[in-house]
Prior knowledge:
The chain is an alpha+beta fold. It folds into three domains: 1-64 and 199-223, Pseudouridine synthase (2-Layer Sandwich); 66-198, Pseudouridine synthase; 231-297, Roll (Archaeosine Trna-guanine Transglycosylase, Chain: A, domain 4), CATH 2.30.130. It is 18% helix and 32% strand.
Amino acid sequence: MFGFLNCHKPIGFSSRDVVNVIQGQLRGQRVKIGHCGTLDPLADGVLLVGVGPAAKLVPYVHEADKCYRGNFRLAAESPTGDMEFEPTVYSDHPIPTTEQLAAACQTLIGSIEQVPPAYSAIKVDGKRAYRMARQGQTVEMPARQVQIDSIKVLEYQYPDLSLEIVCGTGTYIRTLGMDLAQAVGTVAVMTALTRTRVGEFELADSITIDQIRENEIESMLMPAALGVSHMTSLSVDAEECVRLTNGLGLSPSRQPTPGPDPQPLEIAALTPQGNLKAILVQKNGCWYPKRVFPDAGGNPASSINQT
């Protein structure tokens, strides 16, 4: 088995719960699995799970952009920034217009500095921040750089606001909503969060927990190459596949077509059929295999109803 499961994680499930269901289906088989990016139990949406050798692609999937739909309530705040605790509502806060919100969205696009919420899974001094916060300790959260590609107002009927956000890994959507609210003179809590896309994996094509339980895992795998579609790639023929399998590099003349990254540190080697053969790194002007994968690059998902 070699590929990704595009899972629809439901509200109330942790990412680990989804992995446990998959492991239950694979009981007795020595197959590695790993999920690509945690979703909180209060959120739902796309959760990618690498199966077999694709589990080693998790760090590369993290580099793909992600799309979220986040719902927020303005003039309300809670310790966690979401609805885990009953929010405090402020009736005297200003009511921003749609135009003001749209303008504020533009100020948050690009590489920005974000302070994660204290109620997060980030480790501070070796301890989970949310555990320290729940014990009443003051947690100083370190700021981090995150990439925000776009923020769009989808719906707005005060005090409820719905945003579509395309961003890079490590972004805290609830914090982004709180920063947006602050920019228009108020506060906000996140009332719902759905991850609608990771790279090329769309929520519309995801499989449910029931489908995972009722079908063969291998029949639902998506091609591993989809997980690295954001990377610069190079097509390799049968002879080059043999070289890569044996740990040998490619000819110095074999260079990828220039992509968004002018000097990629790693590239994906694809067969003419579009299957992922290897992840390559450059040494002395040649591309050498860092990871080599089975000849079958992942099976297209079967025709089961994926809703």
